[in-house]
Amino acid sequence: MEKTKMMALPDYYSELRPFNKYFKEGHPILCYHKIALPPGKARIKGLYLDPNLFFTQMNEISQAAFISTRPNEATRSMGSPITITFDDGFVNNLTEAVPLMQQAGIRAINYLVADRIGQTSDWEAGEGGEADPLMNESQIRDWLAAGHWIGAHTCTHPRLSRLSRDRAREEITAGRKKLEDRFGISVEHFAYPYGDYDDSTVELVREAGFKTACTMHRGINLTKTPTLELKRWTARYPSRTLKNFFRRFF
Ligand SMILES: [Zn+2]
After folding, report:
1. What is the pLDDT of residue 38?
2. What is the DSSP letter of 97?
3. Residue closest to 234 by CA, chosen among 55, 87, 116, 113
4. Which residues surround ligand 1, an ion (CB under 5 A)?
5. How far is ligand 1, taken at its centre, from the CA of residue 153, in Å?
6. Regions of the chain with pLDDT less than 70
7. Which of 20, 67, 115, 127 could cross-link to 155 by cystine, CB 3.0-4.6 Å?
8. What is the Å distance from ligand 1's center to 239 Cα?
């Protein structure tokens, strides 16, 4: 039954309409990267979302009585839960997305790369992507002060399943501790870089004490969904032309 419904949905999230009913059956999580117009030279345009389209998406969610929470957090007020996630901590998440989310009454979690704070997404350069600026410490403090949350996304954004167990453990554990020490808050949520993980990665994330971890698998989160393998819908432009190309980069 769930499979049939999934097949009727678009591959990516661009508007609420086809998802509204489905989203209210569980806890949906949306995934964003860069809120900006794609530069002409960017090959992976799917990582960019026009601020105007983002604003439309945020307003639709608000108006449909969804309440934005952290992953797996239940809403106490009237409304269905939804979680808005950003991966990597781009500066445009603060400069472009925060004012728009504030207007729409939406809160979001940003998964930060602990050793790249104030630097660029240098891992993208090797993937044919565009390295863009990441928030520095004071910008992350502004993000938090605006009512948003942070989660961990390792130290250097590796493909965790390809690392030795010790190196993967270090990326996961230190990635959390560095954020906690720097910002003086508890960091309980994790996202796998590229959505890449295996059983051993999940065990390390559990061992590090994370409450939830997000993958890049599509779907709704139900009570039976493992909390360290939460599903997300990637939000992007409605176009389908970049689909196959884009898919490689999770
Ligand atoms: Zn990432």
Report:
1. 84
2. I
3. 87
4. 87-88, 193
5. 7
6. 1-7, 42-45, 239-250
7. 115
8. 22
